[in-house]
Amino acid sequence: FWLNLVAQPPDFEVAHFAMDLARPPTLQFEIVGGGIPVDYSWRFRCLEFNAVHQKLIACDGWSVIAIDPLDGSHRILRQFPNESFISCIDPSNGDVVMATNREGSAGADFSRVAVTTGQTSTISLADVDLWSYAPQRLIILGNGERCILATELDPDGMMGSTEAGHFDANGKCIAWSVACFAESFQSPANRSGVFDSFGHSVTAYFFEQRAAVFLAGSEDTPGCVDGVGTHARFGDLRLPTVNNKFLFVRMDGAETWQWRLARLNLKTLQVQSVHVTGLDHSDLLNYCASDDYMFALKACPASKDEVYKLLLMRASLDESDPSPGLVEAVSSVDLRAPVQAVSFRLSDGTVLQVDRRILVARSEYFRRMLSSGLREEHTNEIDLCADSDADEASLSVLLRFVLSDAWEGPHKDVELAFRVRCLADLRTI
Hints:
By secondary structure, the chain is mainly β. 13% of the residues lie in helices and 39% in strands.
């Protein structure tokens, strides 16, 4: 059973997993503003959403730019003399924490840039004992603690394994733990952890657990398959982006049909391919997500005067379900119609019965089945004797959810959640 092999996210919930039955997600991008002139569009590899100031923060390795996500207006906050990247956004005040590569030695130095003024100040790690490790990235957590991703240095100065050191606000060491980041120290983070994608798999380092975990995909087997956790398959993955609910990751291939944007639900580990309109994969330079929107930078060719331009694109992440809600569906039931029970017959002889009027009002799947002109419409009986996935426990939970919008099963029974989810997926309920 795969959950014995793959650690669950800290907020994994059985009920969310079993009943996250949304339709395949769609992102419809639109242009915001008139564009951002730059010297070289390909350099903008860092893009973060600053939730405190409600700004996008972009970095080309030297310049830090604040972009208004509503109208695309922008201003340069700071220019660095040496190559730098966004290390984190301070959750307490929205300052941009930058990591600047050291000249002639391993590791990085850190500074903070105030979004409102552009004022820069150095962040000292003199109070932190890093032993023989070279700091690569500093992440300030919501509780004031600091997580430092660092690489071990051997006597010759060569970099070895990566570990995460946890320190309180005064520099006192809380713990050291292994953090596996195969791709880049610029991997995205949210309030729960840091996320990475490499090869055909997605991994994370969770701050609370202080552990690196395998989330989805396979270390060895590529593919293009939606699924849950290790049942999903990816091709060659680029760095992901993440908000507090989802991780989004792009998959590349030699042919355009192999390109894919996938979404990983951080509560349920469900992977779904995302349908994208308004933005071509080959034009997508970088992207990030707030809890409400996905933002992307689109590269535009240089004009005759050799001025490059970035276009800001925006797509809503709103997943409001257009199907009737519980109150709306039940209010449409004709109470003058005779009561008819729909019987579900299982292989062990068990028969479950549900009011046909409510079942049809609540479920498009059953509405089509019971008006199809086939045997089920005339007999009001659905024969599931040959369905090995249908047992009394899982079908009861599923039917009660259809009737009430509530998970009525045990909240710790992961195997039951899988069976319920399988029943729902096979019937697109």
